[in-house]
């Protein structure tokens, strides 16, 4: 039985981030539309060529977006936000919807399932759905084998908002348009049409069965293309999707917690369909255990006759290629980016179809060599580290008040101060060795000193050093901890033209040198007020890195926790009395399915506590989170047992405080009293209202006042003015108490 190979999507960015550069140059007015089109056409062509060179039996077309594939579908179906209606439907409209323009705000940006990619939310208010036929071009290709990749109708509607129609009616409105698209691309030669339906792997799927059935029955009857219902990121209910009249089913065998395979073994895969088997991890950077992939294919073959192997999801979520990386061979052996994943598919295809094991053996050997490296085998003494504070919060609180002597309603900031052009230039110059370590260090000290003085002048109570040495709150730690690798070209699209370069956790993690000590101690030496140490927590570091998959996630998380604990203790030893451990990613790391939430939260809380509990009762631990839907995880946040939490609230006042009130939170809370995402300076009245509202429910003696989040994206003047208003407002409260 021969197998075929395919792919669900390829990174858009290009080997040198050409995609991002072209689009940003177009936005800046540096290049004209024709040039943008030419650059992007070339890049798309290159992406397709790379995939063809790897002998894929079919390459994806349609995934190469200029911003986001969901937004592409919105424009294709004429689902245009009301405020942008009446304009020609072209790429300028697309960019305006995505980014906003002078008159109108952008559409919302939301996380794509449990990835760090973000899509643009379709808005259905007052829309007139129809097919914009000139936008169909994106979904086919004039030469060679391809399949069209289009968001499926159920997922598209599920991710939408607004409009009067019911969910079902929205789907029904779209179906005739889908039919036209399918017929059109089929006529253009599409081998099949990949309709992406990741919504079917979520808890919501069980409520969507009737409309899913109706939709796919309609498409089977009315259109004449071969439809593959593609799922990923979790398991599907196979007994349900098996009934749908589609040509093929795409299942994820990597992120399904074993359930897709289990269902196949139960004989649930229908004999009349093709299995598009997602066997290579589309979301991580690791070379596959190629032998286990071979075994998986053999197992699948016992139950299914027609198999296409492919990545578990679009390769959008991984960097393009290792080609130009200069990484130690010992680690390189273990890695596989998008292009290298295509090699893995090809190796398996050669093995099965041609009995040619050359590439397969080579990959197998590399994999084995990597797994046996010493850097993966450290010993840890978890039991030697405390996982809960010595005394209760009530006891600690008294001791801390005594040690810190803060006024009531203490004021502080979240950590970062403006990353000015100068700051970024110095850092780049230092990284590229244009300036010496000494020069860089003395610049950092100069900047820290300047900002300590500013904070004293403003009258803030707990000061920060400003995080000028950091590019990013995770990459910075990745550069310093053992077991992490920071690549040069490992970029992944986060949203629009924004790309991130997550560090890669390749080995056991170890703290070998202080991470933040020098800057923090220096800042503290300049003032009598307490300077708050500033660290990123284990849950966030793990979530924003490419994690190891050869160890359970929580083990890696605990390793990071021990490393952070070392830094916490080093800071404490150096006389730092307040230490903040940020966990902004705690909530976004929640697994897709609810059944796994409790386990995830329990382990996350444990890791945070491992990282922070060893300190003396008098040392005050802060944490920070910047999102507002706390409801479902509020118990876990309380369980972190941080002495003070600072949170974003300026966009959701009442609700949020209620979350904390509902369980009588009882620990220190710093409320974000103004929105740092906007350059607008808050008024005293606004801040006073926010404080008053909070004080109706939260004990005054537990209450802190701070901005929403770090101030790195604001400029100096905005920061000075806004913080001055904040401090003045608090002084009024203190006087009128
Ligand atoms: N301490 C970080 C900062 O101030 C926190 C950033 C975040 O919450 N994402 O920038
Ligand atoms: Zn924040």
UniProtKB/TrEMBL annotation:
**Residues engaged in binding L-methionine:** 414-416, 467, 582
Residues that, per the record, bind Zn(2+): 624, 626, 635, 648, 709
What residues does 5-methyltetrahydropteroyltri-L-glutamate bind to?
Answer: 20, 116, 544
Record GO biological process: methionine biosynthetic process; methylation
Question: Which Pfam families did the record assign?
Answer: Meth_synt_1, Meth_synt_2
Positions of the Cobalamin-independent methionine synthase MetE N-terminal domain = 5-303
List residues binding L-homocysteine: 414-416, 582
Q: What class of enzyme is it?
A: transferase
**What range(s) does the Cobalamin-independent methionine synthase MetE C-terminal/archaeal domain occupy?**
409-729
Sorted alphabetically, which CDD domains does this protein's record hold?
CIMS_C_terminal_like, CIMS_N_terminal_like
Q: How is the cofactor bound?
A: Binds 2 Zn(2+) ions per subunit.
> Which InterPro entries does the UniProt entry name for this protein?
Cbl-indep_Met_Synth_N, Cobalamin-indep_Met_synthase, Met_Synth_C/arc, UROD/MetE-like_sf
Give the UniProt keywords, A-Z: Amino-acid biosynthesis, Coiled coil, Metal-binding, Methionine biosynthesis, Methyltransferase, Transferase, Zinc
Any idea which GO molecular function terms this record carries? 5-methyltetrahydropteroyltriglutamate-homocysteine S-methyltransferase activity; zinc ion binding
Q: Which residues form a coiled coil?
A: 29-56
What cofactor(s) does the depicted protein rely on? Zn(2+)
Q: In what pathway does it function? A: Amino-acid biosynthesis; L-methionine biosynthesis via de novo pathway; L-methionine from L-homocysteine (MetE route): step 1/1
Q: Which residues form the active site?
A: 677 (proton donor)
Give the source's domain of life in one word.
Answer: Bacteria
Q: What is its EC number?
A: 2.1.1.14
Family classification: Belongs to the vitamin-B12 independent methionine synthase family.
What the protein does comes down to: Catalyzes the transfer of a methyl group from 5-methyltetrahydrofolate to homocysteine resulting in methionine formation.
Q: Which PANTHER family does this chain map to? A: 5-METHYLTETRAHYDROPTEROYLTRIGLUTAMATE--HOMOCYSTEINE METHYLTRANSFERASE
Query: What name does this protein carry?
Result: 5-methyltetrahydropteroyltriglutamate--homocysteine S-methyltransferase
Organism of origin: Macrococcus brunensis
- Give the taxonomic lineage as stored in the record: Bacteria, Bacillati, Bacillota, Bacilli, Bacillales
